[in-house]
Amino acid sequence: MIGRLVAYVPRRAALALSVFFLVLLVVPWFANDYLLTVLILIFYFAYTGQAWNIMMGFVGQLSLGHAIYIGLGGYTAAVLFSYFGISPWLGSFAAMLLAVLCGAIIGFLAFRFRVAGVYFAILTIAFAEFARIGFDHFTYVGGSAGFFLPVSNYSQSDLWTLRGKPIMFYYLSLGMTVAAVILCHRMIRSRIGYFWQAIREDEEAARAVGIDTFRYKLLAVVISAAMTSLAGVFFAFYYNNLFPEEVFSINRSIELILAPIFGGLGTLFGPILGAFLLTGLAETLTAALAALGVDVPGAKQVFYGICLLLVITVLPDGVWPWLYRRLGLAGRPE
Amino acid sequence: MRRGGVVPTDIYLNVAVSGVLTGLVYGLMALGLSVIFGVVRVVNFAHGEMTTVAMYLAVALFATLGLDPLLMMLPIAGVLFVFGYAMQRWLISPFISRPEHSQFILLVAVAIILANGLLIVFGPDARSVQTSYAFDSFMIGPLIVDATKTFAGAAAIAVAAALFAFFRFTRLGTAIRACADNYTGAQVVGLNVPRLYALTFGLGAACVGAAGAMLALITDVTPPLGPSFTLLAFVIVIVGGLGSMPGALAGGILIGVVAAMAGLFYTPSAKGMFVFAILVLVLLFRPQGIFGRRA
Fold first, then answer.
1. Where are the domains of chain B?
2. Cα-flanking dihedrals φ and ψ of residue A330, to 5°?
């Protein structure tokens, strides 16, 4: 499988990628906890960006409510672990099942009733908001007071229960991101992937050549939902707390779509590059403002917003397609 | 139903009237979104942040100079008009022909800047306007109507009526409607479309300014309130019919009453669920909205 993956990539790029991957593998031996935390955040965004990209980048369905899958996944695995002692690895299956069900309902309603474009985006927000307020009143999982996982000071990391140090979460998030990239690469080059792109480019034409657009759009939603719910499981076990106002909030949905759009929609490396750049930018701003002695809440976000604004104005297709051309690589950016 | 006795009928009526008045103000805010989308075809994801900016303007003018938000409604609308005009002219204009997700990121960036700019200037605490008539009310038969909300609701109707008249009866308004109906046709007959778009965005922002000044009288404002206003505006506009002017006000009234009633019958914190349930139902069964026409 790796062989087939590499076969598509030019040798120079393959070499650069391997070096990059090796660096990421050994980074924890040299990095302090701060850098590790930043990298975990980057992988979290790279992974969720990859998952969201399946819907928007591959099939052209703009979802602004992906927080619902983060929240459902997080709550499911956290409750199964805290109340029943079930490992998050097993809980993940339940989380995915629930997210798939939820995605299928949203997708079914939207596509059956022809809710498209901006209306589809609003529908996804509505479901996420519905879940947020619902969980606020769901006392079994703590309601608006939040849900907490048992925490203690770990000397050893337990991979089976995901209780432990940042280094374990680092490798977990790295692994998830790599798996997501491989999965997306396989999908986009498969029959399904070509159907998806056909639907993205022209849905009427896709239907005319006999593609069951309803079915393939639904498939994209379901896969994206399942993948995003795993990020939710990660979120829950990494942060050890869940608040409906926090996990289901519209801000959560927005932050996870910034990286893929910033990096380059519909590409494989766009979400990753976007996650590195945006998280790196945010952390650099924090450090720079701290160094300058500026301690104004909101100042960092204003700069962040200005940078976002400038880049999207200058590079509307995202950074990766631009970089791809600058590097002199042929063909369409991956 | 609340425990411990029957709720008198008057209460329902009072809550309904209060919902109608609040809904009118929200409707005016949503009208801005509808006008912008109806003509410029850009979804203003910074709508809620612009609303909070207007609210803070009202709060600041009242706190420093003692100026009543009701009097400041038009000046604030003017400030927002200039802001909206400039934003469309220099920022959004190149994005008109770009895909929706590009526009989305642009406006999210604007929203982030506005919300955090407010945080820097005004701090994180909730602010409000306490006028001398804050607790006044009118007695109309069995009804007790809050004075502030009555003024706000009446002002919302007046502004909406003025805007409606502008679009219906003036040459400029007709020209803008021509741009909305047929972009190429408008260019062919020699209309300055970019300028008319900027004007429209300014008018939409002016609605937000007027509504924001009124909202400062009705609720507290904090910097992160933007997204919830944006969502509310979306819901109202979609329920009423995107692009329909009377629809925005009607949608505002409907949502206002439903939210008020849900607060009374169930619990205030869950009223959003009813609001979003209505949105989902409308999207599925009448996607053009109650007053909208099918495209």
1. 9-224
2. -90, 165
Task: Give the count of beta carbons closer than 10 Å to the beta carbon of residue B258.
Answer: 18
* B219: Cα within 13 Å, side-chain hemisphere: 14
As a residue count, chain B comes to 295
Task: Give DSSP secondary structure letters for B151-170.
Answer: HHHHHHHHHHHHHHHHHHHS
pLDDT in tens, A140-179: 988 888 999 888 766 777 788 778 788 889 999 999 999 9
pTM of the model: 0.88
Q: Are B144 and B14 in contact (CB under 8 A)?
A: yes
The residue with tokens 């369409």 is: A332
- Could you tell me the residue ranges of all domains in chain A? 1-30, 31-251
For chain B, which residues lie within 8 Å of any Cβ of chain A, measuring from their own Cβ? 43, 91, 94-95, 98, 100-102, 104-106, 108-113, 115-120, 124, 223, 227, 231, 234-235, 238, 267, 269-270, 272-273, 276-277, 279-280, 283-285, 287
